[in-house]
Amino acid sequence: MIYDTSAMLRMVAVVLIGIGSVVSVGVPAAADVMHLRLDGSINPVTRDIVERVISLAEDERAEAVLIELNTPGGLEESMRDIIAAILASEIPIMVYVSPSGARAASAGTLIVLAADVAAMAPGTNIGAATPVDLIGNGDAVSLEKAIRDAAAFARAIAQQRNRNEAWAELAVTEGASLSAEEALAAGVIDLIAEDISGLLSLMDGVALTDGRILHVASVAVRVVRPTLRERLLAYFADPNVVYILFLLGLFGLIYEFFQPGVGFGLAAGGVCLALALFGMQILPISVVGLVLVLFGMGLMVLDCSHRPTGCSPPEESQRLPSARWRCSTCRALSGCHG
Asked: What is the dihedral of CA 79, 85, 89, 92, to 10 degrees?
């Protein structure tokens, strides 16, 4: 009997490929540590980025999420949403204030306190979490209420993560701040690390307060970067830019009020106010986009229906260049130009 060896080899190859595919599907890939760097203010876009990365980590069953933080603070509502996402996460969240010279001020302080692992690099600082009024139109009573509310929130977070509750309250009520070494001695953070690799080495095998054990020494670190859309929106959501947009929007509408007509004041003022309302987290980005689209369409309709100023000759005079005509506005003869 003669056997076709080439056909048999092809059959064996197909079987081996099929077995290998089944085995590779059945064995889960090694978990990663997802690394997100937040450098700037805490705003609605920052919140969306953090929530997206945590959701992605949960879907892919990552070992942990590492947030490298350097922030002067930001909006309270965005901070609370980020903290809520961290506390509800199924994946351990590590917040690392880095590099040297960075800070976790104001809203960043509470985000560090809420992390499963709170770490800082040498030469960094944390604290000064007293709330301030962005627009500056609040009274003393409202500000005092906001401070008390934020202080209670800081104590609750510190208590849940077994950190220094007294200092957390002082950071809000008195603007207390600490260096990395002082924060470690005061029980505000868990450790000081020179870099990310050192942080992962120190945290490998450590048990968290909820009983989970970290295995992060030998896993790959995957950097997750904001999308182009998120970077663009983050610029408009910066509190400093929001304040300028709000003022420009008001001045544009005031100018349009004193100079009636569909012009630059209405267009620029409306766009600036819409972006400012998004930055202050009064309107979500989907609503702001719809408002801008409708506003642009409205300006186009007004532009089409707006009659130009000045005088134009009637059709009869256009057909007869030598004919004289009288302007219906100023009653002048054909020499009028508006």
From this structure: -20
